[in-house]
Amino acid sequence: MQKKISISQIKDAAQEAFDLYKTNTDGKNADYIPYLANINKNLFGISICLLNGQTIQLGDTEYKFGIESVSKVHTAILVLRQYGAQQLLEKIGADATGLPFNSIFAILLENDHPSTPLVNAGAIAACSMVKPIADPENKWKAIVDNITDLCGSAPQLIDELYKSESETNFNNRSITWLLKNYNRIYDDPTMSLDLYTRQCSLGITATQLSICGATIANNGTNPVTRKQIFDTALSPKITSLIATVGFYEHTGDWLYTSGIPAKTGVGGGVMGTLPGLFGIAAFAPPIDNAGNSVKAQLAIKHIMNKLGLSAFSGDQVTIVE
Ligand SMILES: NC(=O)CC[C@H](N)C(=O)O
């Protein structure tokens, strides 16, 4: 079906979602990373970036929160840029785990395979793959430059979060050494884990994440800077990774009810990408039992359903003035 949606319809849907959920108090800040437990739980922002570069922003869209696991998407893209689709599949995988993001059991079940770069195991493996190998300074630079390219502006390290996370990441240390044992870490393990922890501690805004979502939806061209960031052919690979495991063990429910591939982080951010149409991000710190922001989920779902959109419908949608 041919369908036209106006920008004012999108704005109205976003405003409605914001008003509906701004006072919602469900969920709880992540507390296994002490820094995150103390973030103002009432922060709430929604940003949509259209493919003409226009953004629609509501609430705390300029607040810099911990990017956390949303950064797994960015570094997966960097690995795809450096190695191509086939090598990512062989060295890490592109499968769902159906288990929590930090699951050790998932590694054992997959016979040593990290499954996907979008869970902790695969993300640590991805950091180990970033080139140049054995050069932590330039690996870090590559990670940050890639995020800057995708988001149209630079992220900023939150030192306190980095410290808090480094002091408490015992589970991730176990994951790293287990993967090392299976030859799935492709650089120094301690350095790879540190890069992962540091990238999770980057401060990012909902606006920046919506621009990244739009870059993916726009086949690799950042709609704001107009820069081609990655090869067009990688776009469906990235979107399929996000669709498969973006909400961990709740991914199926999420896709079924929202219709949009999206990736979450325990900092409260969610970044969605609707191919050919827009990127969307929402941010609110309280999360559910799988580590996904409660309000961000409600808001994005509301907007998608209100507009009658789904990545899985055959509709040919155009956004008009
Ligand atoms: N789901 C998440 O956002 C988890 C990220 C966090 N840095 C961790 O490794 O536990």
From TrEMBL:
Keyword Cytoplasm: no
Class in the EC hierarchy, top level: hydrolase
Pfam families linked: Glutaminase (PF04960)
Listed EC numbers: 3.5.1.2
KW Acetylation (keyword) present: yes
SUPFAM superfamilies: beta-lactamase/transpeptidase-like
Any one GO MF annotation of this record: glutaminase activity
Binding site for substrate: S69, N120, E165, N172, Y196, Y248, V266
UniProt subunit comment: Homotetramer.
The protein's name: Glutaminase
Classification lineage: Bacteria, Pseudomonadati, Bacteroidota, Bacteroidia, Bacteroidales
